[in-house]
Design brief:
Blueprint (H helix, E strand, L loop, with lengths): L1 E4 L4 E4 L7 E6 L10 H19 L3 E6 L6 H10 L3 H18 L15 H13 L3 E3 L5 E3 L36 E6 L14 E3 L1 H12 L4 E7 L3 H16 L4 E7 L2 E3 L2 E2 L10 H5 L4 H9 L7 E3 L4 H23 L9 H22 L4 H21 L6 H17 L14 H10 L6 H17 L3 H13 L2 E6 L2 E6 L1
Parallel strand pairs: 3-4, 3-9, 9-10, 11-13
Antiparallel strand pairs: 1-2, 5-6, 6-7, 7-8, 11-12, 14-15
Helix pairs in contact: 2-3, 4-5, 4-6, 5-6, 8-9, 9-11, 9-12, 10-11, 10-12, 11-12, 13-14, 14-15
Length: 489
């Protein structure tokens, strides 16, 4: 399996530190607002990467932090007249809720910065002891960038060419403009914790390194995040690890490409800024996933909002194919000798699985993986149209299971729990067939059986009345070689 390592600027064979196991960390959000779809794209990408590693049989331990103390949180709290803790709690819960809606698996470990103060202070003490950090007179503690001969190893930045002011905080307490804060002295009204250097709070770059060390051990296999985090955040993370513990933080660094909306940089002033919640309130999560995953995770994604309706149609096509395959299998005759149609579909399922794996093994190429699924769907639809009454249940079930299994790696659910049939079918079944249950799908089966009995008895009035009642509910009866079924008009 090939993985693109941002630090090496090339694809490398994935070689886990422990055979069969992957330790993986992805930077989480700063919880001061609803996350936007650019954030969501990163979390989706690593969700699929994690799912595929599990699909391949790896035991994956996945950690993701919540930054619940930060300038942005404090500013939001001051604007709204409440505490930083209240803001952080509200948006931590909001983030987790939206991740669940988006089908993102929960991390195995979700540390919060405010609960990891001791681990961060221990790391800072080690850096000071090793001569890589210093306490300023005002109670701040800074990492000495020039003390690290390897600084720039991840981003490729040359320390001598970095200029103060370019994503570098400048103040008079630093020995060098490039130095970054590990610990920030307390200010009036801000959350703070006691420390050897005075009351204060951790710097943003400090938490991830300490959390990874505590919960996963260092080095880990994979560290991920958005491309915008390479410098300075991830560069500063790996610098702290190498200087504190004399080894790399991660063996593979993976980063997602940036997201644009309708061809432009996402911006509130342009009216193209969307939170994930706004999108999921209008469109199914599975459809949004399908749209985003058609672009490789390292490539820039141009999120075209006018393509969302098309993604909904694509999702429905996939679900309809699976539903038709399962229905055909349940109504098929006993398998006998396989026909040429059966053998063709069985071969298509094998080829789809092999092609899916080939594409995903090449740096998690979700676009290629989806193409493999769509090829199988096309073959399945052709089979259902041409096989007639010779359908083999084992072959159709294998095709349906394969489509669902591969889609599940993408986090896309195709075997919908609900039939989507109208509840009024129950009333119709009670009226026309004496049905006593409450399940619309079960009611549909009862109605179709009653209609078939009426037709067999040449009771055309009853058969037509059942059909007309079904039609009035926006459904049609399809008579197929394997029996009758309902579909949307």
């Amino acid at each position: 399996m090939l993985v693109y390592n941002s630090q090496k600027h090339r694809k490398q064979e994935l070689e886990p530190i422990e055979p069969g196991k992957i330790r993986m960390y992805v930077c989480g959000p700063t919880v001061y607002d609803q996350i936007h779809i650019g954030n969501a794209r990163t979390f989706l990408s690593f969700d699929v990467i994690r799912r595929y590693l599990m699909y391949k049989g790896f035991e994956v331990t996945f950690a993701q932090n919540l930054t619940d103390v930060d300038d942005k949180i404090i500013n939001r709290a001051n604007e709204e007249g409440r505490s930083a803790a209240e803001v952080a709690e509200e948006y931590s819960n909001a983030f987790i809720e939206q991740m669940h809606r988006f089908g993102i698996l929960d991390p195995d470990i979700r540390p919060r910065a405010t609960r990891e103060i001791e681990a961060m202070q221990d790391m800072i003490k080690t850096l000071i002891e090793h001569g890589h950090a210093y306490a300023a007179d005002n109670g701040d503690v800074y990492f000495s960038v020039r003390s690290d001969d390897a600084y720039g190893i991840l981003s490729g930045r040359d320390v001598d060419q970095l200029r103060a002011g370019e994503r570098v905080e400048v103040n008079d307490e630093k020995r060098d403009p490039l130095d970054f804060a590990l610990w920030k002295a307390a200010k009036p009204g801000e959350p703070s914790w006691p420390s050897p250097w005075g009351d204060g709070r951790p710097g943003w770059h400090t938490e991830c390194c300490a959390m990874i060390r505590r919960y996963l051990g260092t080095p880990i296999d994979i560290h991920g995040g958005g491309q915008d985090l390479i410098f300075p955040h991830h560069e500063n993370e790996t610098a702290q690890c190498m200087c504190a513990w004399d080894h790399a933080l991660a063996n593979y660094w993976m980063h997602t490409g940036m997201l644009r909306v309708n061809g432009d940089k996402m911006s509130k002033s342009l009216g193209n800024f969307f939170t994930l919640k706004e999108i999921l309130d209008k469109y199914p999560a599975d459809a949004v996933r399908l749209l985003m995953l058609q672009t490789h995770y390292r490539s820039a994604l141009d999120f075209q909002t006018d393509q969302l309706d098309g993604a909904v149609g694509t999702l429905e096509r996939l679900r309809t194919c699976v539903k038709n395959l399962r229905w055909a299998a349940n109504n098929a005759k006993e398998d006998g000798n396989l026909t040429e149609f059966d053998r063709a579909l069985s071969k298509a399922a094998d080829e789809a699985q092999a092609e899916f794996t080939r594409q995903m093994d090449d740096d998690f190429n979700t676009a290629g993986g989806l193409a493999a699924i769509f090829e199988l769907v096309t073959a399945a639809n052709k089979y259902l149209a041409e096989a007639g009454d010779t359908i083999a249940s084992s072959v159709t079930l294998r095709a349906a299971d394969t489509i669902c299994e591969l889609a599940d790696v993408m986090g896309v659910e195709l075997d919908a729990a609900e039939s989507g049939l109208p509840a009024e079918l129950v009333d119709l079944a009670r009226e026309r067939a004496g049905y006593e249950g409450s399940d619309p799908e079960e009611a549909a089966e009862v109605l179709l059986a009653a209609r078939q009995q009426a037709r067999a008895a040449k009771d055309w009035g009853t058969a037509d009345a059942i059909r007309d009642g079904i039609t009035a509910l926006g459904l049609v009866v399809e008579d197929t070689p394997a029996g009758a079924r309902l579909s949307r008009a």
